[in-house]
Design brief:
Strand content of chain B: 35-45%
Number of domains of chain B: 3
Largest interface: A-B, 29 and 30 residues
Keywords (chain A): Heme, Iron, Metal-binding
Protein name (chain A): Cytochrome c
Structural class of chain A: mainly alpha
Shape of chain B: globular
Organism (chain A): Maribacter ulvicola
Helix content of chain B: 10-25%
Largest sheet of chain B: 10 strands, mixed
Number of helices of chain B: 7
CATH architecture of the largest domain in chain B: 7 Propeller
Structural class of chain B: mainly beta
Bound molecules: copper (II) ion
CATH topology of one domain in chain A: Cytochrome Bc1 Complex, Chain D, domain 2
CATH class of the largest domain in chain B: Mainly Beta
InterPro entries (chain A): Cyt_c-like_dom, Cyt_c-like_dom_sf
Oligomer: heterodimer
Number of helices of chain A: 9
CATH superfamily of one domain in chain A: Cytochrome c-like domain
CATH superfamily of the largest domain in chain B: YVTN repeat-like/Quinoprotein amine dehydrogenase
CATH topology of the largest domain in chain B: Methylamine Dehydrogenase, Chain H
Strand content of chain A: under 5%
Radius of gyration of chain B: 28 Å
CATH class of one domain in chain A: Mainly Alpha
GO molecular function (chain A): electron transfer activity; heme binding; metal ion binding
Radius of gyration of chain A: 22 Å
Distance between the termini of chain B: 45 Å
Shape of chain A: globular
Distance between the termini of chain A: 59 Å
């Protein structure tokens, strides 16, 4: 029975070996290869098949994200690019920043950030997603807040957010259900990170 | 052997299978058509009618159903949630049984939910769900259901659709005339089916008669929180108490229980419990007894029963053993309990929406008996009794009879109401639903069921305000209704449109386990308040990791506590070293998602309990006891993002005497 399920895929992965495919699909295919190959080992006891297994593992590295990113032509990666005019897509149309950082807001923002965001965004190093340090030198306050409050739409409709998602391996920005006030406080906290 | 060769073989096998399958299906349908003619309720050649019915049950992709239906799972011990009219199953709610799908009864947090005075019990037989009411109308706050085998009552929170509380019922056995609620949810009532020695003791079975007793338990429901507590147990004569229903409207304050085996036989009940021409419906004035116990009446007796409560804040359950229960001797409360003689081993006892009539469904009789509440009160006030049983007055059948429905059916089991003055009774033996009119007792319509219907259900059918649009028959026998699946089949349900004069069978769908009864409510009452996530900030779990910076591992002797966080798509930490053979590793995992429908799962190789499915903001704990040295993986079991396959980690397990320190990391 298992054989019946897996073998129909066989022609697909043979063809796809030399073609760019997205990582997810590739992983599924890889898994199937492994399963099929191991089944074959059981079925045929063939030693030469082992080489193929090694080959498919090697391949994983060389294919990495040269394929899906629409940003390949851009010299500067999406995370490094400066775009202060783009306000993004979402509920935040305009934010006025006070000349001085509001320390109390920033403190509240830091609390929210450390609970809701830090699993993916470390303060000053690229992790699952980009680091917030210096973010306001590259992005408008509106864009930052819309990315926090409206990530599902941003990664579909905002070209920069879309590119960022590709740059970060397709990891989705989670909607952590922050209120506008919480997001504003997080923004104030980001002002303290230079 | 070449690959192509293998491929060929498999294709041949699969085509062969396909052909023989179609062949069997065609042959099967020919046989069915010729065998049963058009008596099987299948869409007939009348295409117009069939497509009309199809429209009635069709809920277009993305559209929602009009009703939620909660079906008991019978021997699954759980509750399933369906949509009506589509018959689509939305969820199985684990209640009395361990549920590996999400870890209920396996996780450290939920194990206490299944604690009883008999110890940890992994399964039960759930029977009769009932939705909480305010002023006799469904309020949709809680769903109650009984565990029949190890007597318990559960309360399900209809915001989270999770089991919130379970209370064990002492002195009970076969908790069957349960779990029906009064019209302001003052009490959820649990009656025993089997009478037993109270208190339990070692005695000859043959001495049953006169010595065994039947406990009817009135469990109070705290109006704000829903918390249950046994207010009193009525210690009744040793009959079998089969089903019950509350009075409503004018009969509010009374509760009615059917009895059988008033012969008090202790063996071969199939014959010996069917000797009396009539059994009883016990009418219990619970307001009077409540008053009696509030004035200090009743006897507190030693008992052992658990009270298990789940908290949405700590995401954990606690189990408390209760040590005493208040019992009431019914003969000590004059004017509170009366017996109404009812033909032939009645099963259901059902009260009309106005509270005027109490319907006895004598399952070995052809007729239905409707008692009049007004006549019952008049007979009680006139003290016109027809003898007594164990000191409790028996009313004269003729004095309390409101009417008889000459149904023409066989084996009436249960009656529901539509709010338009009609009643619908299921007949097990003749496999049909009969519609009849309250007051005139005339039969209006009858439709076959497929097959051998037990209970039926109309949304709100056990309330002052039923929503009489659909009726579901819950059938005991499935046979040929669906594609065969070997010897074991799920039970079938049929959906009838009851909005017109005549009932119309419009749909047929399989259920899960054995739904003995169901309760349904308009989606408009429940859906808007259905909870979407648990707030991480409000998580009070003692082992929660609310901030990834708090992720850590703590060793206490050979117990190791892993404080772990998860979010799309990684665990913090995901590399762990310093675990040793013989350790007992507790994974306390907190899901940091705060978005609707982003659970993550957890499984660890060699784990001897189920995996976990953790909702956003929730913490759950699983224990793993490594037995072998090596490097062992764990992973997320719920496809959570495009990088789900990457959501994994490793644990290095060293020998018991190893000197390797605990360490953990992510991305280093
Ligand atoms: Cu996951």
């Amino acid at each position: 029975m298992t054989l019946v399920i897996f073998f129909p895929f066989y022609p697909t992965y043979i063809c796809s070996i030399n073609k760019p495919i997205n990582r997810l699909k590739m992983k599924i295919v890889l898994r199937n290869i492994v399963v099929v190959l191991s089944l074959m080992l059981v079925a045929c006891g063939g030693k030469e098949e082992k080489k193929k297994e090694g080959f498919s593992v090697d391949r994983a590295k060389t294919l990495e994200k040269t394929t899906e990113s629409p940003a390949v032509t851009n010299a500067v990666s999406a995370s490094e690019r400066v775009d202060l005019d783009n306000k993004g897509v979402g509920p935040i149309k305009s934010v006025t920043l006070s000349p001085e950082i509001d320390a109390e807001m920033a403190k509240k923002g830091e609390e929210v950030y450390s609970q809701m965001c830090m699993a993916c965004h470390r303060v000053d190093k690229k992790f699952i997603g980009p680091a917030p340090t210096g973010i306001l030198k590259r992005r408008s306050p509106e864009w930052v807040m819309n990315m926090i409050l409206n990530p599902e739409v941003m990664v579909k409709e905002d070209p920069l957010a879309k590119e960022l998602m590709a740059e970060f391996n397709g990891a989705p920005m989670a909607n952590q259900g922050l209120t506008e006030e919480q997001a504003r406080n997080v923004l104030e906290y980001f002002r303290t990170l230079d | 052997m070449s690959l192509h060769f293998l491929k060929k073989i498999t294709i041949n096998i699969s085509t062969m299978k396909k052909y023989s399958f179609y062949l069997a299906a065609i042959l099967g349908s020919i046989l069915l058509l010729t065998g049963c003619g058009n008596q099987n309720g299948k869409a007939s050649s009348d295409g117009a009618l069939a497509s009309n019915n199809a429209e009635k049950v069709y809920v277009a992709p993305g559209e929602h159903d009009e009703f939620y239906a909660f079906m008991s799972g019978g021997y699954s011990g759980n509750v399933t949630v369906y949509g009506l009219p589509s018959g689509r199953m939305f969820k199985e709610i684990p209640v009395f049984s361990q549920f590996p799908t999400n870890g209920y009864g396996y996780s450290e947090e939920t194990k206490p939910m299944l604690e009883t005075s008999f110890g940890f019990i992994p399964a039960d037989d759930s029977h009769h769900p009932d939705i909480s009411q305010t002023n006799g109308e469904l309020d949709g706050r809680w769903l109650f259901i009984n565990g029949n085998n190890t007597p318990r009552i559960a309360r399900i929170d209809l915001k989270t659709f999770e089991t919130a509380e379970i209370i064990e019922v002492p002195n009970s056995a076969g908790n069957h005339s349960s779990s029906y609620i009064t019209e302001n949810s003052e009490y959820v009532v649990a009656g025993t089916r089997f009478s037993v020695p109270i208190p339990q003791r070692d005695m000859p079975i043959k001495d049953y008669k006169g010595n065994f007793k039947g406990a009817l338990s009135f469990i109070s429901v705290e109006p704000e929180t829903g918390r249950m507590d046994i207010k009193f147990q009525l210690i009744m004569p040793g009959f079998n108490y089969d089903l019950s229903h509350p009075g409503r409207g004018k009969s509010h304050g009374w509760f009615f229980f059917t009895t059988y085996n008033t012969e008090e036989a202790n063996s071969l009940l199939e014959v010996n419990a069917s000797q009396n021409d009539k059994d009883f419906i016990a009418a219990v004035n619970w307001k009077k007894i409540e008053e009696y116990v509030e004035n200090g009446g009743g006897t507190m007796v030693p008992a052992n029963y658990t009270h298990n409560v789940y908290s949405d804040e700590t995401h954990s359950a606690t189990s408390t053993m209760k040590k005493e229960v208040l019992t009431v001797d019914p003969t000590k409360v004059p004017g509170a309990i009366f017996f109404m003689p009812t033909p032939k081993s009645p099963h259901g006892v059902d009260v009309s929406p106005s509270g005027d009539y109490i319907i006895g469904n004598g399952k070995l009789s052809a007729d239905l008996t409707a008692f009049s509440f007004d006549k019952m009160i008049a007979a009680i006030e006139g003290e016109k009794f027809d003898g007594e049983a164990y000191g409790l007055p028996i009313l004269k059948f003729e004095d309390v009879l409101g009417g008889t429905v000459k149904s023409g059916g066989l084996g009436p089991l249960h009656t529901e109401f539509d709010g338009e003055g009609n009643a619908y009774t299921t007949f097990f033996i003749s496999s049909e639903v009969v519609k009849w009119k309250l007051g005139t007792w005339e039969v209006i319509d009858r439709k076959p069921t497929f097959y051998s219907v037990g209970h039926c259900m109309i949304p709100g059918g056990n309330s002052r305000k039923p929503f009489g649009k659909y009726l579901i028959s819950l059938n005991k026998i499935t046979k040929d209704r669906y594609l065969p699946t070997g010897p074991e089949l799920e039970h079938s349900a049929q959906l009838y449109d009851i909005s017109g004069d005549k009932m119309e069978l419009i749909y047929d769908f399989p259920t899960h386990g054995e739904p003995h009864y169901a309760a349904a409510i308009p989606a408009s009452i429940l859906a808007p308040k259905s909870q979407k996530i648990y707030k991480l900030a409000e998580n009070e779990h003692p082992f929660a990791t609310k901030n990834v910076s708090e992720a850590r591992i703590v060793r206490e002797g050979n117990e190791v506590h892993v404080y772990m966080a998860m979010i799309r798509s990684h665990f913090t930490p995901d590399n762990i070293e310093g675990i040793k053979v013989g350790d007992k590793v507790y994974f306390h995992i907190t899901n940091h998602e705060q978005d609707f429908d982003v659970p993550h799962g957890f499984m660890m190789i060699g784990q001897k309990n189920s995996g976990l499915l953790i909702m956003p903001g929730q913490t759950k704990t699983s224990v793993w006891e490594p037995k072998q040295e090596g490097v062992w993986p764990f992973y997320c079991t719920d496809f959570c993002s495009a990088l789900h396959q990457e959501m994994q980690g490793y644990i290095r397990v060293s020998p018991a005497n190893s000197k390797i320190d605990l360490s953990w990391s992510l991305g280093e």
